[in-house]
């Protein structure tokens, strides 16, 4: 993978997780990464009137539990579950230029390398170096990957500008985009899903261990997910945890609402922290919990669950116990209300 892509992801992955810290300077990172993505994919340029396309297909014999790494710069990546033991990657390069010859020249300057060895395949997009005689900033080329893989394939995805969609893959999965949405459905061993500027969504997943989903500028959605532990975070966006079954939940946002619905686990710990936005908790079942809720400038309500209070009580602070108090519910927001209801 070229040096710019490597360095971009080093910055992204080294930054503190939005799920664990509210990092205001990351708003600057969003603008910087958006500028990088735009440099590769300028679809609105007036001098890009002609278009040329090149399609190729690669087949890798990885076995039912092989490993696939995809590295892209500009273009969407789609991975779906397939049968058999082979992985098929359809690669579509699209170039735009002032005329046909300019578009063809741009198309040839962007290459895709594919390497297969010992049950592992790597597919990476390469743009030319500045020393190659043509600036990468003048290349209006996108590369789309459409992948079909066995369900237990281990998949790792990194892209700068493009959406990522993964469906039905049960093997180890990580996916990161700087400028684009990351959406996963029907996953199994989902690890980390990240975007700098885009929505991150995990749907219909049974995760054995922990799952981390985060964005800087975008919503984070976990829907019908079962996991031991989940961490969700965003700086500017909402967090929606719908029908979530999890022993430990951490959700943090700086500017946005947090909505949680699902049952509480016995001895479970649920930490929902906001700064500018409301927190709404809709509980299924009748598990007891210890509640510690606070808001600086909003009201706190728990109409459906009678809380045996202790310590300070008021419209903006509520501490106490419901039932046997076996779970812990830790809720706080600076500017917003907190509502706890039955589902």
Describe the structure in brief.
The chain has helices spanning 3-14, 26-40, 100-109, and strands at 50-60, 67-74, 77-81, 87-97, 111-117, 120-126, 140-149, 154-161, 164-167, 173-179, 182-185, 190-197, 200-206, 210-217, 220-236, 239-242, 245-255, 258-263, 269-273, 279-284, 289-295, 300-301, 308-309, 317-322, 327-333, 338-342. With 343 residues, it is mainly β.
Describe this structure in words.
The protein has 343 residues and is mostly beta strands. The protein is 11% helix and 53% strand. It is built from 3 helices and 26 strands. It has a 26-stranded mixed β-sheet that branches. The chain is elongated, with a radius of gyration of 23 Å.
List keywords for this structure.
single chain; 343 residues; mainly beta; 26-stranded mixed beta sheet; elongated
Topology:
Layout: H1 3-14, H2 26-40, E1 50-60, E2 67-74, E3 77-81, E4 87-97, H3 100-109, E5 111-117, E6 120-126, E7 140-149, E8 154-161, E9 164-167, E10 173-179, E11 182-185, E12 190-197, E13 200-206, E14 210-217, E15 220-236, E16 239-242, E17 245-255, E18 258-263, E19 269-273, E20 279-284, E21 289-295, E22 300-301, E23 308-309, E24 317-322, E25 327-333, E26 338-342
């Amino acid at each position: 993978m070229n040096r710019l892509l490597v360095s971009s992801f080093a910055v992204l992955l080294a930054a503190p997780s939005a799920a664990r810290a509210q990092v205001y300077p990351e708003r600057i990172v969003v603008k910087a990464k958006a500028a990088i993505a735009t440099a590769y994919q300028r679809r609105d340029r007036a001098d890009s009137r002609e278009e040329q396309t090149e399609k190729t297909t690669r087949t890798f014999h990885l076995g039912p539990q092989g490993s696939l790494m995809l590295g892209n710069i500009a273009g969407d990546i789609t991975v779906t579950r397939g049968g058999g033991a082979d992985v098929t990657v359809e690669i579509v390069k699209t170039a735009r230029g002032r005329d046909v010859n300019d578009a063809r020249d741009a198309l040839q300057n962007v290459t895709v390398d594919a390497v297969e060895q010992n049950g592992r395949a790597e597919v990476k997009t390469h743009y030319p170096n500045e020393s190659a005689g043509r600036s990468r900033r003048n290349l209006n080329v996108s590369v789309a990957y459409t992948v079909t893989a066995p369900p237990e394939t281990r998949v790792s995805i990194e892209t700068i500008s493009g959406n990522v969609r993964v469906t039905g893959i049960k093997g180890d999965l990580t996916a990161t985009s700087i400028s684009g949405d990351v959406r996963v459905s029907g996953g199994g061993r989902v690890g980390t899903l990240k975007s700098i500027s885009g929505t991150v969504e995990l749907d219909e997943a049974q995760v054995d261990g922990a799952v981390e989903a985060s964005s800087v500028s975008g919503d984070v959605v976990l829907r019908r997910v079962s996991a031991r532990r989940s961490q969700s975070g965003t700086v500017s966006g909402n967090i929606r945890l719908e029908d979530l079954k999890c022993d430990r939940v951490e959700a943090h946002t700086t500017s946005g609402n947090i909505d949680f619905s699902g049952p509480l686990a016995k001895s479970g710990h649920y930490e929902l922290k906001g700064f500018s936005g409301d927190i709404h908790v809709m509980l299924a079942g009748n598990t007891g919990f210890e509640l510690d809720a606070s808001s600086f400038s909003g009201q706190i309500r728990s109409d459906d669950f009678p809380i045996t209070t202790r310590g300070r009580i008021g419209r903006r602070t509520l501490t106490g116990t419901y039932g046997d108090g076996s779970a812990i519910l830790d809720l706080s927001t600076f500017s917003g209300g907190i509502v706890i209801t039955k589902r």
